Amino acid sequence: MRNRGVTIEENHISRIEEEADLLLSHGRRLPFAGLFTATRCVPAGPLPAEMGCALDETPMGLQIRTSAAQETTLPGVFACGDVASVPHQSPSPWTTAP
Questions:
Q1: Is the dihedral of CA 47, 51, 57, 60 positive or negative?
Q2: Binning pLDDT at 50, 70 and 90, where does residue 2 land?
Q3: Phi, psi of 5, rounded to the nearest 5 degrees
Q4: Is the model's pLDDT at 6 over the cut of 90?
């Protein structure tokens, strides 16, 4: 991304002020017209792991590995929702259960 002129800011965000101004941990302020965020997902409980479903760490969080039909790595066990596929994308590029 740096090769394309994108600045990578590695300081933490202390707070958001005004409409969308970021105040960084070292005091610098970055003004923006708007902000977009992407949350990370995790299973709500330990059941998928306890059952033996394969889990994958992805950029969107811990995901239950599923096929295009949403079947997990356990035959006859299906998973759905954000934790089973990347939101707004179907099928997920990170999930490839047999």
A1: negative
A2: confident
A3: 85, 15
A4: no
